[in-house]
Structures are given as C-alpha cells and as structure tokens.
Design brief:
The structure is a single chain. This protein is about 35% helix and about 15% strand. The longest helix has 22 residues, at about 85-105. It is built from ten helices and 16 strands. α1 (about 10-20) packs across α7 and α3 packs parallel to α5 (about 175-195). It is of the alpha/beta class and about 350 residues long.
C-alpha cells in the first residue's frame, strides 16, 4: 500500500493515476479544502481518508499498513502577500513534521518521496564572463521600477549568462513558499539520518496540465494565463516576458514519482523534475493564446513585477535521468493545447466577451 498525501489535488491525483496504472494499491489522505467533495476524477478503487496531515490521529490511521509514502500535501505558489506566512508554515512545515513524527513511530519499511520545488534555488545558475560562476544578489526595487530585470554580477555589475541549475546548487529561498520547501527538505533529511528511512525529494519545476487549479493566487503561471484567456481577456505577462522557466507536464511529474518510489533503496537525495527545455514566460503565454483559438486575445507585456519573483531558473535534468531513469516525454505544444482546451475551449466569440 502506498499513501499519497494531497492525493485529491492537482499533482497528487495524477500520481495516484500513475501508481494505479502500475498495479499498486493506493490510499489517499486529503483534507478536501480545495474541493466540496471527493473529485470525480479520483478512481473509485482508491482507499480515501479525509483529514488534515497536521492531525496526528488522522495520519496514524492513514499510515496503517503502508509501505511507502508520497507526500504531496501543502500550500503552493506565492499566495496573496506576506500575511499568508503563518498558513504556509502551518500547512507545509508543521504538516510535514507531524507526518515525519508518525512515520518514525510507525516504522514504515519503505521510502518517503517528498514533493519539493525549484523555488528552493531562488535565482538559478549564472556565469560572469570575468568572474565565472556567481550568485547574484536579490534584485532591487529601484532596478525593477526602471525596467532593469536582469540580475548582474555582484563583483563587477556586468551582465550574466543564465545556466541550468543542478541539485548541488546553494539553496537560496526568496519568498515564504520557498522557505517552507527548504525547511521541508531539511526536516526530511533529518528524518532520514535519524531513522535510516530512504528519502527522495523531487524538485518540481513549473508544472502544468489537466486539473490545475484556476482563479486563485496560489495557482501557477500557466493556470493564471489560461484562466485569464477563459474570461476573454489577454494574459498579462510581467517584466518583459523573457524570464526563463522549465515547464513540465503533470503526467511527467507523476511518472517521476513512480520511478522515485521504485528506485533502488540506495538512491536518496534531491532530484530536479523538469523537461530539460527552458522557455520564456512570454512564450508560454503565446502558446496558450494560440491553443485557445484564432480569436483569443494576445498576451500583453506589462513591465509589472512581483517582489518574490526571480528572473531565470531552469533545470539540469541529468541526475534524474542517470539515477531514476526519468526523462520528460510529453510534448510541450500538445500538452499546452490539451491544457488550454480543458480550461478555455476555443470559441470565435470569446474575445472580450463578444
């Protein structure tokens, strides 16, 4: 039996599908805070436990007879503002701590797979022509106000070249959500050292696909753009749209979770889960607009910014390929079309509500 916390959610439900397809028995623990009832897409054969991962009694019940745990539960995204800080810490850090304590008490024989995120890196990897690899300082408000979005070398202030980030990069969380994901990884690493339980942390890059939440500040950029298009409005692309990200389909993320759960017991640590193909945020917005139909409004480059955002962060997929046998399979254009059609079916009358 494999327990998937947050298994009724966006990524968790796809992990459940992938596990069932491989013949595993699956139990889901989910609080259903994002749903009025158990979602229709959750298969009938799943053993469902409704409850909060912060509740020790519920967690003990959910762990009964479990061999492995896939921990997907938590709050995601940048949220509304800093006033969300206590909720993020409670759901992500306290929830993980409760789960780990009960796992330690239960003596679970198998592996813990933790849903982490690329946000733990802060800015991605950069190189200066003169000083080699450098870690840029956080971008300054006055620079962002002037439309200077690219980070510069902290030693000579010259332009930098963005490079793919590998798992051995320094962790540098630059918003509340990122800080909680780093703490989750550290708690899980301490749990592994104390108990000997194998732990793998999967650092998801920008995940998109069916069942992605809509119309919420906690959703990812792909969902925000698609929701805007569904309302007949143009997606608003912050900065100049040149921010580089790695957009990875949720079915690929689900496969990565299965591979992590069945990997050799000696395999532990953090792994990037990515497509290996960085793309600009404006490119994503254009692809979604194309998929929404010929009459969909085109994206607007606004020059706006958010304090917690970073400029470029995209993954080196090599470690996951070598140690987990994972490489992304979903085609970007087809995946975006599937996603866009699910949220905003093409219509010649969609533009501006006409």
């Amino acid at each position: 039996m494999i327990l998937v916390t947050g298994g009724a959610g966006f990524i968790g439900s796809h992990v459940v599908d992938a596990l069932l397809a491989e013949g595993f028995q699956v139990r889901v623990l989910d609080s259903l805070l994002a749903h009025e009832q158990v979602p229709d897409y959750l298969p009938a054969g799943v053993d469902f436990v409704e409850g909060d991962v912060r509740d020790p009694g519920i967690v003990r019940r959910a762990l009964d007879g479990v061999q492995h745990v896939c921990h997907q539960a938590g709050m995601v995204g940048l949220g509304s503002d800093f006033l969300d800080v206590a909720d993020y810490v409670s759901h992500n850090d306290t929830g993980t701590a409760v789960l780990l304590r009960e796992l330690a008490s239960s003596g679970m024989p198998g592996r813990l797979v933790l849903a982490s995120s690329m946000v733990v890196y802060g800015e991605g990897s950069y190189a200066c022509a003169e000083h080699g690899h450098v870690s840029p300082r956080p971008r300054q408000i006055e620079d962002l106000e002037r439309g200077c979005f690219e980070p510069t070398c902290p030693r000579c202030a010259q332009a930098l070249e963005a490079r793919s980030v590998s798992e051995d990069a320094r962790l540098d969380p630059r918003n509340v959500y990122a800080a909680t994901k780093v703490h989750q990884e550290h708690l899980a690493a301490a749990f592994q050292r104390e108990t000997g339980t194998s732990v793998i942390a999967l650092r998801y890059h920008n995940v998109y696909g069916p069942r992605m939440p809509r119309n919420t500040p906690y959703a990812g950029v792909a969902s925000l753009f698609a929701s805007t298009l569904a309302g007949g409005d143009a997606p608003r692309v912050f900065e100049d749209g040149g921010q580089l990200r790695d957009f990875v389909h949720v079915r690929d993320v689900a496969r990565a979770n299965v591979l992590a759960l069945v990997a050799d017991g000696s395999v532990t640590g953090a792994f990037n889960v990515s497509s290996g193909h960085p793309r600009g945020v404006a490119e994503l917005a254009e692809a979604l607009a194309d998929a929404a139909g010929a009459h969909a409004p085109r994206p607007l480059i606004t020059g706006e910014y958010r304090r917690g955002d970073v400029r470029h962060v995209f993954a080196c997929p090599r470690k996951a390929e070598q140690e987990l046998g994972f490489h992304a399979q979903e085609d970007f254009v087809e995946g975006i079309r599937e996603f866009a059609v699910a949220l905003c079916p093409p219509s010649p009358r969609r533009h501006n509500g006409r």
